[in-house]
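ok so i was messing around last nite and threw this chain in just to see what happens. nothing serious, just curious
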Amino acid sequence: MLPKWLDWARRLQATAQTGLTYARDPYDIERYQAMRALAVEIAAAHTVETGARIEELFRGQDGYATPKIDVRGAVFRDGRILLVHERADGHWTLPGGWADVGDTPSRAVEREIIEESGFEARAVKVIAVHDRDAQGHPPGPFAIYKLFFLCELLGGAATTSTETAAADFFAEDALPPLSLGRVTPFQIARAFAHHRDPGLPTEFD
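result:
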């Protein structure tokens, strides 16, 4: 469950970000800057990050505040699922990452798969659209929607990348330690379920 302090900090930051995007009155701008400073103060009081680092993170966001989009691809070979070994935390996840401007959702996940694993795949179905906060992931600074795709393996071979140290296929009952900030055991289980029965409806929330 999302800690209340993080919910408050996020909502204050989102309101401040949107307000600073549209405000023209200098007094309104000052009020939104004070609101952002309060969001930074709340976050800094509950984390090991410095206020300066949090302020830098929040100031890097502009425009109307909306959830970020993360895409993940479930690729199977001989009943095993493709996972990549993240350099950042030393654990494993479905290949994926932030959707880029200019990509369709399916193109984004296909690009992430080949960049992170070396395997070429084609998105064939949306497994789920999840609110990250509702799925048991560790808390993070921003709201995120996670799009999971069932993908068809087309070819390629395992490679490494700047973000990943390995790529391999794993059986459902022999998964390596997962990068829980990126994927949960439940989400992996649902990917296997949709692989076994592609007729299952898309899941959401």
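not much to say yet. The helical segments are 4-22, 26-46, 51-59, 105-117, 185-196.
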